[in-house]
C-alpha cells in the first residue's frame, strides 16, 4: 500500500516492520497470536514492562515505536520501545528496558519516533515528523504506557477501582498532605454511586481516568460490549467532572485488541504500570511498602487500589512509603492529560 511512496532507506525499514504488523492485526490468526501473547503474559506473576505485543496493532507503519527504535538507536529520545516486538519481527530489539524513556511524557524534545507515540488526537493534529506528509488513519492505537520519563526522578501514582467512601477520602487527605497529584482509574458503576467523591477527586486536581463500567475481563467481551463499558464510563465521568477522561486502564491489565481499538476511538491512551505491589491481595502493609520501595525507579508508574474491598493496608502503606519517596528526592506527577 505504500509502494508508490518515495521512501528513504530508514523509511523502508519502518514500512517493512509496519507491513508485518498489519499482517498480524488484519486477520484472525493475528488476533490469536495477540491473544495467546496476552494470555501468556497474564499467566506470569506480574506484568513485565514492555511484555505485551497486543498493542502493536498500529495501522501506521511510521507510528510503530519498535521499528523506530530499531532504526534510530543513536537518538536517546528514540530509545523508547513501550511494548515488546511482535513475533513476526525478530530483528526488532528486545522489550523495552526498564529504564526506557517514557512514551507518555510527550516531551517537547520528541523525536520522530517519540512523537509517533503520542495520543491519537495529538498525532492527528501534529505536524509531520518526517519529510513525507503524515498519513495517519482516523484512529491510531496508542501503545501501552508502562513508565514516564526515566530521566526525571518522578513517580506517577495511580489508584484503581474507586471511588470508595471507605478509603478514597483518606487517600485524598494523604495526597493533599504531601502535595501529590495522582491519577484515579475509576470504575463507572462506583462513580455513578458516589458522584460527590468523583467531584472531590477532581477538585483536588487529580486526574480521573476510565477503568470500565463493571471491571470485567475485557478479553472475554465482544467489541460492542467493550465499547459499551468504556463509552458509558467516559460519558459519566465527563458529565460529573466536566472533563472527558484521556487515559484508560484495562481491569487486571488484561488488554485486548478490541479494548485498544475502542479506547483509541474514544480519545484515550492506555496506561499500564511498572510497579505493582499487589496490594489488592492484602499481603500486609509492610509487604506492600517494601515492594514499592524495592521496585520504584525514576519514571515509575505505581499501581495502588482504593476500591474493590478492604484497602486499609494500602492506605497504611501510602502513609509509610510516600514520605520515604519524597525524602529520597522523588516528585509525584500525573501523566499529561
Ligand atoms: Zn481494577
From TrEMBL:
InterPro entries: Glyco_hydro/deAcase_b/a-brl (IPR011330), NODB_dom (IPR002509), Polysacc_deacetylase_ArnD (IPR050248). Signal peptide: none annotated. Residues 37-95 are annotated as: Disordered. Keywords: Hydrolase, Metal-binding. Its EC number is 3.-.-.-. Residues 83-95 have a biased composition (Pro residues). The keyword Lipid biosynthesis does not apply. It is an enzyme of class 3 (hydrolase). Residues 153-333 form the NodB homology domain. Residues 37-51, 60-82 have a biased composition (Low complexity). It comes from the Bacteria. CDD domains: CE4_NodB_like_6s_7s. Gene3D superfamilies: Glycoside hydrolase/deacetylase. GO terms for molecular function: hydrolase activity. This is Polysaccharide deacetylase family protein. It comes from Kitasatospora misakiensis. The lineage of its organism: Bacteria, Bacillati, Actinomycetota, Actinomycetes, Kitasatosporales.
